[in-house]
Amino acid sequence: QVHVVESGGGLVQAGGSLRLSCAASGFTFSNYLMGWFRQAPGKEREFVGSINWSGITADYADSVKGRFTISRDNAKDTVYLQMNSLKFEDTAVYYCAARRGTWPIARAKNMYDYWGQGTQVTVSS
Predict the structure, then answer these.
(1) Rounded to an integer, what distance in angstroms lies between the CA atom of residue 22 and that of residue 94?
(2) Mind listing the pLDDT tens digit for each residue in 85-95?
(3) What is the rounded distance in angstroms from the CA atom of residue 2 to the CA atom of residue 108?
(4) CB 49 within 8 A of CB 70
(5) I need a labelling partner for 23 at 20 to 30 A (CA). Which of 4, 51, 98, 124 fits?
(6) How far apart are CA 5 and CA 84, in angstroms?
(7) How many angstroms separate the Cα of 82 from the Cα of each of 31, 63, 85, 88, 116?
(8) Do the Cβ atoms of 34 and 45 come closer than 8 Å?
(9) What are phi and psi of 52, to 5 degrees?
(10) Distances from the Cα of 92 to the Cαs of 6, 46, 80, in angstroms?
(11) For 9-64, what is each residue's pLDDT tens digit?
């Protein structure tokens, strides 16, 4: 049975940092590209970033480039999202997703096979 579970969300002041984790099980993690998406109230779910199976290639939305960093530990079946210099507009539910294959990047939601339930990140201004 596949499980994708995000953790690490919470309330943080603008300018602060948070590190999200996403633990996967039920599939061969190292065979999957991992992505992070977010959804703010009343808005569409949007791409944040992705990291390829080996961890060599990472891709980021322009809105987070230079502030967020994605990494993965294939030995722990876990992907991370380090978020620095957080802004009020980063407030959203953050989702982790998995896409099978050696794709270098994947920005579209419908490219992903498995999704987590999300973790809330709230940035106070």
Answers:
(1) 10
(2) 999 999 999 99
(3) 21
(4) yes
(5) 124
(6) 21
(7) 22, 14, 10, 16, 17
(8) no
(9) -75, 175
(10) 13, 10, 17
(11) 999 999 999 999 999 999 999 999 999 999 999 999 999 999 999 999 999 999 99
The DSSP secondary structure of the chain, one letter per residue, reads: --EEEEE--EEEETT--EEEEEEEESS-GGGEEEEEEEE-TTS--EEEEEE-TTSS-EEE-TTTTTTEEEEEETTTTEEEEEE-S--GGG-EEEEEEEEES--S----GGG-SEE---EEEEEE-
Structure tokens that stand for 77 in this block? 């079946």
d(CA 71, CA 78): 9
Work out the angle at residue 113's Cα, subtended by the Cα atoms of residues 111 and 118, and round it to the nearest 5 degrees: 100
Token pair, residue 88, equals 């009020």
